[in-house]
Write a structure and sequence with these properties.
CATH superfamily of one domain in chain B: Cobalamin-binding domain
CATH architecture of one domain in chain B: 3-Layer(aba) Sandwich
CATH class of the largest domain in chain A: Alpha Beta
CATH class of one domain in chain B: Alpha Beta
Oligomer: heterodimer
Strand content of chain A: 35-45%
CATH topology of one domain in chain B: Rossmann fold
Shape of chain B: globular
Order of helices and strands of chain A: EHEEHEHEHEEEEHEE
Structural class of chain B: alpha/beta
Strand content of chain B: 5-15%
CATH architecture of the largest domain in chain A: 2-Layer Sandwich
Helix content of chain B: 25-40%
CATH topology of the largest domain in chain A: Alpha-Beta Plaits
Largest interface: A-B, 31 and 31 residues
Helix content of chain A: 10-25%
């Protein structure tokens, strides 16, 4: 059966890259003695699929991966057993058995929400909040996006579903589909460049709140609804 | 949540920030207020290399099993972070607590190869600890060295307060107790070191003086005080199945060189190859019990989640319970989908059968280490491997479906002739011919691939070849060219690929290996002129090193190309590794006469290691 697992990644482990997080979970599943299914063939590997890679340095409370299991006691037991072998900073939040027809985690991702705060080295203009809301209010935000094939012109606004000021931070709900993924840093860089604000080397601290899939009616729900 | 020693900005700038954050699975966290001794254990190379070292894992586990001690890990910051730390005056920190190493009680440094000597200085420098032991105050950590290079610690003795000679399991508890006692009594660093010199295996270099003869060789090395021992016997574990071994080794986040469970099945080697230092230093052979190994294999696989387990020893085929151990591992590992890796097996019917069972159909390459090209030279070096055995092993392997063979040789061995070098090419050719004779045309899937690699021979202390001259760089290169030329003259030359090692660095390694106290200034000078990470060819600066020798007025040739007299006093003669000098000299003379010496299981050679009262010396022979 297919089970989806949600986890958080905070603190120093934010400096562990995506591939190493995958390796970490392969070992964790062995330590927790989870009855995972292996691929057949000459070098069997655990059947596992991650939703959306998180950039090095970012934190999250909305990460997901799917595993194929041969047997399962119950999802609570799975969560407890995994949590017993986690390092500081990585917590298993919940797990759910998936419907057979549910697509895999990576293909399902449609959007992600973020909370972004600013480095002390970023000198913010006094009226940045009003101007950011005005930026979001625009009908079209034309940008040049670098892709593997070169550069393409696009309307950034189409990928920004929500944007709010929360205290001194910015909340955003962005397109995270494969091929149309928008990085939160890219949105804010575009905004600050438009205001001619000088950006220090690492201006933003990004925290992912949740990862969403699209329901048939087009509405967004978390990967474990 | 722990706070990191490095800012987010720095961590985002450097390659692989995960090297510096600690917090790995099975890393040990303790309450720093509740412990009495803070110990920083350092491998002076990059994290991925240092984390792959079994010895540190054993010591880490042992020291942390002491309630009053917290042992943490330290590695050399990579060159990118090194530069930032110097520029921004960030002191070197330990991974677990992220606290500055300077405030620890001990800085332990494992010294595994000569080419890390400048990295020792990098670590001290970044930590803010004076490079010279003589300049340190009571506030500085006690800097203690261990590992194979401490069997000639003299070239780096000025940088250490103390060396631990031998296996760490036996005396650390006593040393730490003495340290605590001295501190409670308000005694100075000097008082502690003087008392530490009375603990077996401890060498305090500042308590000895060396005088030299006119020809530059040593006249005498003697303790400054009558209570300090003139000779130091190595420490050794006598009961290897009843000692410290990690059940929960630390599991790195990033891929490291040795990314697997390592099961050390035995210590020592029965073979007595005359070039091999480890084969003498770790005598006598002591096997761990099958029960011990089974228990730890399961415990370590469960606690780490690693997908591979590897056996570790100098010669795994000589472990007497190997078939039973392998059967057990195959059964357990199949259940858990774990790979088994079996390095250092001799190629014979048994090992091929085992490899067939543990490896998948994509056959990896097989490795032979004849070390020398001719039977005559293999007799000189006491490598008991005959051409017949090699060809028979190759034949079996080819029949079993292997098509790739790796061969390791050394160039520049004592008494080597051009004939011996041509023998390398001829042996490779014969192996290729064996393939074509063994595997019928219709069953061949492409050519056989033979990869021959040569390294340059470096005489090491406490080996029968410690008296031997080492080749000059030009001689080394001539030998490599002759090897290449001979290979191109072979019938099957298209099936043979040849690699050779760099010569510069082998010469320097040879200088440092048999060096004396006068080399401390050269190493310091080279470091001050920008040398570090010398083990990494992209950072190795031979011209700077040679300049350092010149500036210090020291002739590097003195340490390498000279043949030593039978009775010369060597810098390491104050140490006793268990094997007697008489035995080594006897072996040196037998090498000259091309006489093979039987291994420890066949016949005792009276090397001296029987005095430890354990291991192969007390097994029944025959």
């Amino acid at each position: 059966m297919k089970v989806r697992i949600k986890f958080s990644k905070e603190g120093p482990v934010r400096f562990i890259g995506h591939l190493d997080v995958m390796r970490y979970f392969q070992k964790a599943i062995r330590r927790a003695d989870i009855d995972i299914a292996y691929s057949t063939g000459f070098s069997p590997h655990q059947i596992m699929s991650f939703a959306s890679p998180l950039s090095v340095g970012h934190t999250s409370e909305g990460e997901y991966f799917d595993v194929e299991l041969n047997s399962l006691t119950c999802t609570e037991d799975l969560v407890d057993r995994l949590n017993a072998v986690m390092v500081d900073g990585i917590r298993i939040l919940k797990a759910a058995v998936l419907d057979e027809k549910e697509g895999n985690a990576m293909a399902s991702v449609a959007a992600a929400s973020y909370l972004v705060s600013f480095s002390d080295k970023l000198i913010l203009p006094d009226d940045w909040k009003d101007r950011l809301l005005a930026f979001f209010g625009r009908e079209s935000i034309p940008v040049i996006k670098k892709t593997k094939k070169g550069e393409k012109e696009m309307n950034l606004k189409e990928g920004i579903y929500e944007l709010e000021i929360r205290g001194e931070s910015v909340y955003m709900l962005l397109d995270a589909g494969s091929g149309s993924n928008i990085k939160p840093g890219f949105v804010l860089e575009t905004f600050f460049k438009g205001m001619n604000t000088a950006l220090p080397e690492f201006p933003f601290r990004v925290h992912r709140l949740e990862t969403y899939k699209k329901k048939d009616d087009g509405s967004l729900v978390p990967l474990i609804a | 949540m722990r706070t990191l020693a490095l800012s987010d900005e720095i961590l985002m700038q450097v390659e692989k920030p995960a090297r510096y954050i600690g917090n790995e699975v099975n890393a040990v966290m303790k309450d720093k207020e509740a412990v009495k001794v803070r110990f920083a254990m350092c491998f002076p190379d990059v994290y991925e290399i240092g984390m792959s070292h079994l010895g540190i894992q054993i010591i880490y586990d042992m020291l942390n099993s002491f309630e009053d001690v917290w042992c943490e890990r330290v590695y050399s910051p990579w060159v990118d972070l090194d530069e930032i730390m110097r520029r921004e005056h960030i002191p070197l920190f330990a991974l677990e607590s992220q606290d500055a190493v300077k405030n620890f009680d001990f800085l332990g440094i494992t010294i595994q190869y000569e080419m890390c000597y400048t990295n020792i200085l990098q670590v001290l420098d970044l930590a803010g600890i004076p490079l010279l032991a003589a300049d340190r105050s009571d506030e500085d950590p006690i800097v203690i060295g261990g590992g194979p290079c401490t069997y000639n610690p003299e070239p780096i003795c000025d940088f250490f307060d103390l060396f631990y000679i031998g296996e760490a399991e036996t005396q650390y508890r006593n040393l730490l107790d003495l340290y605590k006692e001295c501190r409670e009594n308000g005694e100075s660093r000097k008082d502690f070191l003087r008392k530490a010199a009375h603990i077996p295996g401890m060498y305090v270099p500042s308590l000895y003086e060396v005088s030299y003869q006119e020809d530059g060789t040593i006249a005498e090395m003697k303790p400054l005080y009558p209570d300090v021992p003139a000779k130091i016997l190595k420490e050794m574990v006598t009961e290897v199945s009843d000692t410290y071994y990690p059940e929960k080794p630390v599991v790195p986040f990033i891929k490291v060189t040795q990314d697997r469970v390592v099961l050390e099945i035995q210590r020592g080697c029965i073979r007595g190859c005359r070039f091999c230092q480890a084969g003498q230093l770790y005598r006598p052979v002591r096997e761990r019990s099958l029960e011990f190994l089974k228990r730890y294999a399961i415990a370590m696989l469960s606690s780490t989640g690693h997908e591979e387990i590897s056996l570790s020893s100098l010669s795994s085929s000589d472990y007497s319970r190997l078939p039973e151990l392998i059967d057990f591992l195959i059964e357990e590992c199949n259940k858990r989908k774990i790979n088994i890796s079996l390095p250092s097996l001799r190629i014979d019917a048994f090992s091929l059968d085992v490899m067939n069972k543990v490896q998948d159909v994509k056959k990896s390459s097989l490795t032979f280490a004849p070390e020398a090209g001719s039977q005559r030279l293999r007799d000189v070096i006491n490598k008991g491997l005959t051409e017949e055995v090699i060809l028979q092993g190759a034949k079996l392997a080819f029949e079993g479906g292997w098509t790739r063979v790796k061969l390791y040789f050394m160039l520049g061995l004592p008494f080597e002739t051009e004939e011996d070098i041509r023998g390398i090419a001829e042996l490779c050719n014969k192996i290729a011919a064996t393939f074509y004779d063994t595997v019928p045309k219709e069953k061949r899937t492409g050519k056989v691939q033979i990869v021959a690699s040569t390294s340059f021979f470096i005489p090491k202390p406490f080996t029968p070849f410690q008296w031997a001259p080492q080749c000059r760089k030009e001689e080394f290169l001539d030998k490599a060219y002759l090897t290449r030329k001979s290979i191109t003259e072979q019938l099957n030359q298209k099936s043979i690929k040849y690699n050779w090692h760099e010569a510069d660095v082998s010469v320097l390694e040879g200088i440092l290996a048999r060096g004396d106290r006068r080399l401390n200034q050269v190493i310091l000078k080279a470091y001050e002129m920008g040398c570090f990470y010398d083990a990494w060819s992209e950072f190795y600066k031979n011209d700077v090193w040679m300049q350092a020798f010149e500036d210090c007025g020291i002739d590097p040739d003195f340490y390498t190309v000279r043949e030593r007299k039978d009775d010369e006093i060597f810098p390491w003669d104050f140490l006793d590794c268990g094997v007697s000098r008489e035995f080594l000299l006897r072996e040196w003379n037998r090498a000259k006469e091309e006489i093979v010496t039987p291994n420890c299981r066949m016949q005792c050679q009276g090397c001296g290691a029987a005095r430890f009262g354990t291991g192969v010396c007390f097994e029944k022979r025959g």
